[in-house]
Design brief:
By secondary structure, the protein is mainly α. Strands 1-2 form a two-stranded antiparallel ribbon. The two termini are 32 Å apart.
Length: 140
Amino acid sequence: MDYSLQTVKKTVVDIPATSRLLKDLRNKNGYSVKQLQEIFGFETPVAIYAWENEKCKNIPCIENFDTLSKLYKCHVEDLYILKQIDFSNMEVHEDIPEYKTYRSLVNHLLEGLADIEEGKVQDFQEAMKEIREAFEAMNR
């Protein structure tokens, strides 16, 4: 198995767009923030405001999305907006410490996984301990 990192496109939830959508759907369906707070049994409306604030980066958990889909009479998939992130154009600055740290961590993890697959390491916990020790030693 090849553990090399490849350029990929990743699908993620567009949180700002989803936040705007949730607020629009609440208003279109005639619910107040206070009503949703009561329906979900929250002590304060903070969670509802966070879901609808595109700067908060919070969205409901799947159980709450399910409840919202029933309230708004739609499918769960209609409550969020997806976008694709293309990593092929990302600039990598190899001279920054974070890059070197992450690259080293990824390399150690990939080496550990290869050792497990090749049967060099029988115990996963032991393999992870060795990876952790190597990483800590590298950062001293």
